[in-house]
Amino acid sequence: MVHRQLCDYKTGIQIEAEEWWDMYKIVKKKSLNPTVSFMEIDAPFIAKKAEPGQFIILRVDENGERIPLTIADFDREKGTVTIIYQIVGATTKKLDSLNEGDSLQDFVGPLGVPSHTEGLKRVAVIGGGVGCAIAYPIAKKLHQSNAVVHSVVGFRTKDLVILEDEFAAVSDELIIKTDDGTYGTKGLVTDALKQLIERGEQYDEVIAIGPLVMMKFVARLTKEYGIKTTVSMNPIMIDGTGMCGGCRLTVGGETKFACVDGPDFDGHLVDFDEAMERSSMYRDFEKHHYEAACHLFDKA
């Protein structure tokens, strides 16, 4: 095994790059719903330093593209890192073709600034769709710190619900919302959050992670009540060290880079409209490559 230390040029933080062709072995894989999968990866050096809110960048094979995925969980004793991903493009399609016992080419991290949880006593954690995979480890850490955690998670329909048992185990109250009312209660996560606030719940902070439009409206709601709100941004990333500029955002009128300044930011300062416009720039390109990958797998 070759173990290298890389340095984030902006923060000076040492990140771990583990290299060994038999490293990054998939020790566990399961499907969470028709489009979302769970993998537990053998990566002891990353597991040793990982914290909630951080991410890794992986390559499936030597010719593959680099994609960022949030660390959904980690086990320092076992030396494993958990990733949860949605099958939306060619690379995630290729990733999902791997099985237990297979290995990834590269697995680098932990990257990004860990989520701030110190000193928080009462928190509402809001998750939307696959963003719940990012929200869960934060809720878990808050629970372990004896904070009161109210979790609100939203999905389009019952078949897409993930991590219900995991959230229930770390939440003092768990509310599940679905767009069509097939599970939990019908409506949006903002509906549930507003009800919690109006019944008198006092929160030190609201942490919202999910689709950009969801985080935008959560932040708009909490601003009315003067509640500090943190959002996790996941724009296009390439190198993950702040050098390419692909993940730039406007926050409080200033340019920030999600990979080194974030991914967490003050939700009341993020320019969500700009972020949504940038996130849609490569949608047609991604769709084309996803369809090409599907045809390739169909022929295999």
UniProtKB/TrEMBL annotation:
Obligatory cofactor(s): [2Fe-2S] cluster; FAD
Residues in FAD-binding FR-type domain copies: 19-117
Binding residues for [2Fe-2S] cluster: 244, 247, 259
GO molecular function, one term: metal ion binding
Binding of FAD, residues: 84-86
PROSITE patterns per UniProt: FAD_FR
InterPro entries (UniProt xref): Cyt_c3_hydrogenase_gsu (IPR012165), Dihydroorotate_DH_Fe-S-bd (IPR019480), FAD-bd_FR_type (IPR017927), FNR_nucleotide-bd (IPR039261), PyrK_electron_transfer (IPR050353), Riboflavin_synthase-like_b-brl (IPR017938)
UniProt-listed GO biological process terms: pyrimidine nucleotide biosynthetic process
Keyword Flavoprotein: yes
Keywords for this protein: 2Fe-2S, FAD, Flavoprotein, Iron, Iron-sulfur, Metal-binding
Protein name per the record: Ferredoxin--NADP+ reductase
Cofactor binding: number and manner: Binds 1 [2Fe-2S] cluster per subunit.
Pfam families in the record: DHODB_Fe-S_bind
